[in-house]
Amino acid sequence: MAGKKTRRAVAEGGLTITSLMDAMTIILCFLLKSYEASDVTVTPSDDLKIPSSSALAPIKSTVQLIVSQSRILVDGEHVVNLQEYVDDEGRTTFEVPEDEKKGQLISELFNNLDRKAQDLKQIHDSTGLTEAEFKGQILLQCDRNLPFSLIREVMYTAGQAQFGEFKFVVVSTSGG
C-alpha cells in the first residue's frame, strides 16, 4: 500500500505562558523599583506659623529642625529655649540667649546636630546603602514672624555641623 497516506499526529496547541510571565515579572520589578512615595510627616507645633509659597518641591525624609517663637527642636527633641524681647521699634521679637551662643554659633544646637550627622554617617558606613548616605540635608521649619538674624544663626550653626543643604517647609498656595 504504497499510495496510502499516513496520518500525522495533530499536536494540540496549548498556551504556554512562561514568556508572558517572565515579561510581567520584569515589568513588576521595574515598577516596584521606580516607585517612590513621599511619606514625610511634618507636624508644626502650636506656636509655629509657617510661611506660604507656591513652590512644589517634594519633601524627603531628613533631619527636621523646628524654630518656633519659643524654642528650637531637632527631630521633635527640645534643644534651646528662645527669649522674647522688644526691639528698638517696639516690636516683639525673639532671640537665642547670649549664654547659649559663641558668636553666631548656638552651642547646644551645634552639639545636637553634630551628633545627628555622626549617627547618620555611621548608619551609612555600617549598612553601605546609598539611600542612607549622609548628604547634609536638613528640613527647616521656621515661624514666619521670626527675625532673619535668628534664622541666619540657626543656618550658620547647622552649616558648621555639616548640614549645608536646607529645605524650607512652607504652606503651599495656588501658584500663578
Description of the structure:
By secondary structure, this protein is of the alpha/beta class. It has a domain at 52-172. Helices cover 29% and strands 23% of the residues. The protein has three helices and eleven strands. The protein has helices at 18-34, 107-127, 148-160; strands at 52-53, 63-67, 71-74, 77-81, 83-86, 92-95, 101-102, 105-106, 137-142, 165-168, 171-172. The strands form four sheets. A five-stranded mixed sheet has the order 4-3-2-9-10, with helices on one face. Strands 1-11 form a two-stranded parallel sheet. β7 and β8 form a beta hairpin.
Number of helices: 3
Helix residue percentage? 25-40%
Structural class: alpha/beta
Order of strands across the main sheet: 4-3-2-9-10
Q: Outline the biggest β-sheet.
A: 5 strands, mixed
Number of strands: 11
Q: Shape, please?
A: elongated
Beta-strand content estimate: 15-25%
Overall pLDDT score: 78
Query: Taking Cα atoms only, what radius of gyration do you get, to the nearest Å?
Result: 29 Å
Uncertain stretches: none
Q: In angstroms, what separates the terminal alpha carbons? A: 91 Å
What series of H and E elements makes up the topology? HEEEEEEEEHEHEE
